[in-house]
């Protein structure tokens, strides 16, 4: 699997889209769609609100695509814009939900009907929501620890230790599943 | 398993647990059709909401966009959008809306009215008499 943000560079896709290359934009959407979704969902937005945020972010990029100063920084630009729009949407949806509780209706609701989940998916589902969100954002591989800290509203210094702790928990859950 | 392998598996697991909706991706791919490289952007600089009260009978939202030497002010109350261009100029207006675009005119004083605008993401394009155009940022009404 080509890690997100590597492959054909997002900056190159922006330049091609500017020149009117019609294949570039869908490629950019495929490359960054998961990242924007992950950010919106990590803010505790439900799927409808997250969809709204992601839509606005793409329209913002379209309105700026010809004037974006540094196309190579487009992933960071998208991430920052998604954070801003998600924070706004979160404010609009009312008082903040308790941080410790699973803020989103939860991935499990989406797939309750699905009988077969991969081992890793089952393990993630069994993890505390904060670990799940952190691992989800880390797995996108396009975000710095500072960006992740801002999304999750945690101190940047806690990202690395929490990452180790959450990965250890995940590994343990995976081993436990194997032993049973 | 290396860290990278594990991260790739985590990413794949989230695609099972909480996939990006197909409609979200389709809307994102369609967004490029709204590109207008010839129009200058007027970006949102202010978004204020006034509750119903002394000044107005209904809750009123005031939106201000600026860019390229022009200011676009919108007042939204009960789905009616009234607006003003400063400096004053006439313009042909296109209201861009997911439910369908529509056109209107600004008079010589730069004023215009768009009645019954349904909720949703909107953006306005102004075609000015000097053949230039201005487009506002997208906002959700």
Counted beta strands of chain B: 10
CATH architecture descriptor text of the largest domain in chain B: Sandwich
Q: What would you call the structural class of chain B? A: alpha+beta
Q: Secondary-structure element order of chain A, as H and E? A: HHHHHHHHH
Overall radius of gyration of chain B? 20 Å
Write down the domain tally of chain A: 1
Q: Mind describing the biggest β-sheet of chain A?
A: none
> Which outline of chain B best applies?
elongated
Order of H and E elements of chain B: HHEEEEEEEEEE
Number of helices of chain A: 9
Unreliable spans of chain B are none
DSSP helix fraction of chain A? 55-70%
Shape of chain A: globular
How would you describe what is shown here?
- The complex is a heterodimer of chains A (180) and B (141).
- Chain A has one domain.
- The longest helix of chain A has 21 residues.
- Chain A is mainly α and 180 residues long.
- The N terminus of chain A is likely disordered.
- Chain A is 64% helix and 0% strand.
- Chain A is globular, with a radius of gyration of 17 Å.
- In chain A, α6 packs across α9.
- The two termini of chain A are 30 Å apart.
- Chain A contains nine helices and no strands.
- By secondary structure, chain B is of the alpha+beta class.
- Chain B has two domains: 30 residues, no CATH class; 104 residues, Immunoglobulin-like (Sandwich), CATH 2.60.40.
- In chain B, strands 1, 2, 3, 4, 5, 6, 7, 8, 9 and 10 form a ten-stranded mixed sheet that branches.
- In chain B, β5 and β6 form a beta hairpin.
- The longest helix of chain B is centred in the first third of the chain and has 15 residues.
- Chain B is elongated.
- The model of chain B has no long low-confidence stretch (mean pLDDT 93).
- Chains A and B meet through α2, α3, α5, α6 and α7 of A and α1 and α2 of B.
């Amino acid at each position: 699997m080509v890690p997100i943000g590597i492959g054909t560079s997002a900056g190159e896709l922006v330049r091609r889209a500017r020149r009117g290359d019609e294949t570039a934009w869908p490629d950019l959407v495929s490359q960054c769609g998961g990242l924007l979704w992950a950010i919106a969902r990590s803010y505790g937005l439900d799927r409808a609100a997250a969809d709204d945020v992601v839509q606005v972010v793409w329209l913002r990029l379209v309105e700026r695509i010809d004037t974006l100063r540094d196309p190579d920084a487009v992933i960071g630009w998208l991430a920052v814009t998604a954070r801003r729009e998600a924070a706004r949407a979160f404010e609009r949806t009312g008082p903040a939900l308790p941080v410790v509780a699973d803020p989103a209706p939860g991935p499990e609701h989406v797939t309750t009907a699905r009988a077969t989940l991969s081992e890793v998916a089952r393990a993630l589902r069994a993890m505390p929501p904060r670990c799940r969100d952190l691992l989800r954002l880390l797995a996108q591989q396009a975000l710095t620890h500072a960006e992740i800290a801002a999304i999750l509203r945690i101190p940047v210094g806690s990202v690395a230790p929490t990452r180790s702790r959450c990965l250890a928990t995940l590994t343990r859950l995976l081993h436990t599943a194997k032993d049973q | 398993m290396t860290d990278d392998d594990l991260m790739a598996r985590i990413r794949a697991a989230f695609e099972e647990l909480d996939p990006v909706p197909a409609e979200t991706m389709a809307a994102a791919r369609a967004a490029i059709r709204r590109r207008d490289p010839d129009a200058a952007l007027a970006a949102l600089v202010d978004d204020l909401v006034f509750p119903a009260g002394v000044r107005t009978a209904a809750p009123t939202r005031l939106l201000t966009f600026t860019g390229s030497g022009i200011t676009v002010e919108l007042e939204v109350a009960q789905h009616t959008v009234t607006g003003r261009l400063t400096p004053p100029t006439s313009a042909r207006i296109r209201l861009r809306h997911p439910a369908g675009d529509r056109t209107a005119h600004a008079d010589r004083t730069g004023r215009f009215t768009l009645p019954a605008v349904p909720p949703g993401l909107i953006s306005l394009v102004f075609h000015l008499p000097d053949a230039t155009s201005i487009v506002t940022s997208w906002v959700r009404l």
